[in-house]
Amino acid sequence: MYFSIAVLVTALLSPTVSALAFDGAVGFGSIATGGTGGTTVTVTTLADSGTGSLRDAVSQSNRIIEFSVSGYIVLDSALSLSSHLTINGQTAPGNGIGIMGAEVSASGKTNIIIRNLRMRQGTLDSDTGHSAFNMGKASNVILDHCSIEYGQWDSIDAVGTVNITVSNSIIALPIGQQFGAHVETGPSTFYRNLWVSAHNRQPLSKDDTQYINNVVYNYQAAYTSGNTAGYFSHDIIGNYFITGPSTSTAKDAFYQMDAQQSVYASGNYLDDNEDGELNGSSYNSVGSATVLSEPWSSDSSSLATLSAVEAVAYVLANSGALPRDELDTFVVSQVKSYGTNGTLYKSQTSTGVSNGGYGTL
Hints:
By secondary structure, this protein is mainly β. It has helices at 2-13, 54-57, 300-303, 308-318, 326-335; strands at residues 39-43, 63-67, 71-74, 79-80, 85-88, 97-100, 104-105, 110-115, 118-120, 133-134, 139-144, 147-149, 156-167, 170-172, 181-191, 194-196, 204-212, 215-217, 223-225, 232-237, 240-242, 254-255, 261-266, 269-271, 281-282, 290-291. β1, α2 (54-57) and β2 form a beta-alpha-beta unit. It starts with a helix and ends in a 26-residue tail after the last helix.
């Protein structure tokens, strides 16, 4: 009897594994609970504010947001999210839902799940110090199958953020600083994303990071460490770096990898001949960083189920908000040129895509 009671007490006191944010969620942000158990609220209008708007829907915590409308919500100002929130863009009918013209902010919030949402800031936002998506000082955040374009400061700002996953997403065509993502604190997971035509920060990782099965195209600097910002560990596995017309130094696929960084790099490829074909070769050179013989994170190897070549096919077919729209189709078409097309933009209007560069939903 004593043994049975002891076992029971131990079981009650032992920590339990948290449920995943959704079926198939991976990485450090997969512990996000979002609006689980809360109220389901349906967005019924594309208006910036008022009854039935997205702004009204995200103004309170413990909500699951769904959509009965499709198209773009044009923001008049930054959209601030509450904590404990799930945004299910996949519930929108037709071609889906998008946000344009201002920042989406989860700054300082916790437990955020965002899926199948297009966040496209662009020059319609007069505040050039804002990013397309800002989760600074937030915790437990997962973005999945999102499309994030035309960020002015960064595409994704995650300074001071704890437990992040960005998966199956398109992070492309940043304007202004032309930066992809800035992460500090962490840890973070970047998994099966498509990064296109950025000057730098794809991402800038000032944290312990998993970077698995990503594709980076037409970069000037791709995976970037914190340089002298501190000692961090990086698992960089099965990624494909493809140079383009804007790439000046192909070896900047790994950038600022100094002696303060510890890196496990395996199965990565670099295609730098820009001949219109995907025909790169193995590339795992990480500068002066300390080379790890095994991943620092216990689940990195199990997440890396695709080779770098397989990652290209998968990411080009599946990344971004679904169904894929005009702008994402344009982005993917540039990557499929394998070195012959692409440029760094300063404005969405320069792309030639309809609706002033935002594309038509």
